[in-house]
């Protein structure tokens, strides 16, 4: 299990060595253990028949993965597909193709059957549709934005009606209840938002804070954001590097401008860091209203939006008032509050007094427009299997 709450963020090498590479190894080992356990059932019959189910590979799996966690997204798709006996055609993001090529080379060196795994680097608008609409691809697994997910799903439907799993965007609530230790809640909410420059689908991008502790939380969150070190991610002590590219950089700055124009209070950041590169100062908004763009849209950057709430009924309603439903966070010591929120929140993953805790055996996926299906764990295996029912007559069975 990798718990990002215990990670001291620093240079790129530290994130790769302490988070991504161990998670990839754990994921591949986990699914390797499933490869010889995908058996069906013998089903009791009401007559002289032998009935059973068989689990068979779905066939050729097409996979399209994003740039923000190229190694982790790779193993989420490739691990279960290979364990189920599928062949894989994978397109990495054009920004990060080398990780998929390198790890695939390692798999072949380890003895993977030639042709079982095929990596096809290419641009999203060309290589992506080619895979999504190909008549010989039996199943599609896609991770990226909800907007692009709609396009991919449409192409799959218009081709051979291939099975599709989608892990898409999010606008996840992080709820800080009135009994919270404010210092601990500030640090966890900070990590939940700013990790990986805010470029995470599960990012806790809507921070709901109870009115009793709201002002204290906002001030301490502002101080934490100001202290966050930004710069060359290969240098020790740096917590935040650049955004992925100019498109994402410009998009984030437009959302920040929108937040200011709509009347949210800019507590920190709000502008470029330095005079070159795609660096953005850690940005915090308070007094955010639910109808603002920064409250509704997935920004995918280092922008924390803090909301005030009065009671559980209110925060449940507001947390669920979104098209997304990927994840949620709860910070409370009250077991009754925790039980109420974990069941009421419409999200595929709910973290309690922690955030971004992942494990190979724990499924990941979303409600509503955050996607279809689940990845990781046993539930992730189901995406790559067909279930066949077999019925055979029995003549004079001794046991009847």
TrEMBL record:
Residues 14-390 form the Aldehyde dehydrogenase domain. One of its GO terms (molecular function) is aldehyde dehydrogenase (NAD+) activity. InterPro entries: Ald_DH/histidinol_DH, Ald_DH_C, Ald_DH_CS_GLU, Ald_DH_N, Aldehyde_DH_dom. It holds the Pfam family Aldedh. Keywords: NAD, Oxidoreductase. The active site is at 167. It comes from the Eukaryota. Its EC number is 1.2.1.3. It is an enzyme of class 1 (oxidoreductase). Belongs to the aldehyde dehydrogenase family. This is aldehyde dehydrogenase (NAD(+)). It comes from Quercus rubra.
